[in-house]
């Protein structure tokens, strides 16, 4: 799951108590590559081709996520490569996240965000940033991190739920968690035949496909209990029930993209005592 502000794979439930059953939902270690095209009003416009790479590794303590989005953007001196890279380590219990997000434009670094977020036993916590140094963000009870959210989305879909609201913290900005509204539905006919890359069939055998759309809203104001107005951006995804994403979109006013899987390979499971 992508976010062009940062691409992120899939989502989650706001209430911590309701999120606990996600612990039984495991994801598959894998590496995937996607082709990327830009969209204009939902249709390909032939501009800014690119690639998106995503890797999820299970460890004895949790999960390691690496992802990179590269777009070739037209400029006055020709096309320039813009990249977003993220590295994250999330504990298996979903209470600790280390994150590093960086962006480059034309080979020059344009932003760098680093830090660590920790949740306590009551579900609330704090994110501390080392870049920019000294910044902190309060995390309300019910905040979930990327992998925990991905697991909860799969759990909700497998349980036959039609959607839910969530809080999401990714760490790409020094801002409070976003409010997210997720709608789970049937896979559209035009996307039902998204192919599994050759040689990776074992990762998809017997797996169901999950389709969802999500709207991301900026942090709620004090006293607000529900997101209002237009979302900052929206996304859609087709994801297998082991967490492997096959197709996605990221849609916002100034830029929209579509990505489809082109390569997929399993990664070894850790040998833990």
Structure description:
The protein has 273 residues and is mainly β. Helices cover 6% and strands 49% of the residues. The protein has a 15-stranded antiparallel beta sheet that branches. The two termini are 31 Å apart.
Reported for the largest beta sheet, the result is: 15 strands, antiparallel
Kindly state the percentage of residues in helix.
under 10%
Along the chain, the helix and strand elements come as: HEEEEEEEEEHEEEEEE
Radius of gyration: 18 Å
How many extended strands?
A: 15
Q: How far do the termini sit from each other? A: 31 Å
The class by helix and strand makeup works out as mainly beta
Shape: globular
Short summary of the structure?
The protein is mostly beta strands. It contains two helices and 15 strands.
Task: Write a concise keyword list for the protein shown above.
273 residues; mainly beta; 15-stranded antiparallel β-sheet; 15 strands; 6% helix; globular; disordered N terminus
Summarize the topology.
Blueprint: H1 16-19, E1 30-40, E2 43-44, E3 50-58, E4 62-75, E5 78-91, E6 96-105, E7 108-119, E8 125-131, E9 133-139, H2 146-158, E10 163-168, E11 178-185, E12 209-217, E13 233-240, E14 245-251, E15 256-266
Antiparallel strand pairs: 1-2, 1-3, 1-15, 3-4, 4-5, 5-6, 6-7, 7-8, 8-9, 10-11, 11-12, 12-13, 13-14, 14-15
């Amino acid at each position: 799951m992508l976010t062009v502000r940062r691409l992120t794979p899939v989502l989650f439930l706001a209430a911590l108590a309701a999120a606990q059953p996600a612990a039984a939902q495991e994801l598959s270690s894998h590496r995937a590559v996607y082709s990327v095209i830009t969209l204009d009003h939902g249709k390909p416009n032939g501009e800014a081709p690119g690639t998106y790479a995503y890797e999820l590794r299970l460890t004895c303590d949790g999960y390691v996520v690496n992802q990179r989005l590269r777009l070739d953007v037209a400029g006055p001196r020709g096309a320039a490569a813009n990249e977003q890279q993220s590295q994250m380590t999330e504990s298996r219990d979903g209470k600790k996240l280390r994150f590093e997000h960086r962006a480059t434009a034309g080979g020059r670094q344009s932003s760098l965000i680093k830090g660590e977020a920790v949740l306590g036993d009551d579900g609330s916590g704090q994110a501390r940033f080392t870049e920019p140094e000294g910044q902190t963000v309060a995390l309300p009870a019910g905040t979930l991190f990327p992998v925990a959210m991905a697991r909860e989305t799969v759990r909700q879909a497998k349980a036959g739920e039609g959607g839910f609201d969530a809080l999401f913290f990714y760490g790409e900005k020094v801002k409070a968690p976003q409010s997210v509204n997720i709608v789970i539905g049937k896979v559209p006919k035009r996307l039902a035949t998204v192919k599994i890359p050759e040689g990776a069939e074992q990762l998809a055998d017997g797996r169901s496909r999950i389709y969802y759309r999500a709207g991301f809203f900026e942090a709620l104001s004090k006293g607000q209990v529900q997101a209002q107005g237009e979302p900052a951006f929206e996304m859609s995804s087709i994801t297998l029930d082991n967490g492997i994403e096959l197709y996605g979109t990221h849609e916002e006013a100034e830029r929209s993209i579509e990505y489809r899987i082109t390569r997929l390979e399993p990664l070894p499971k850790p040998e833990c005592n």
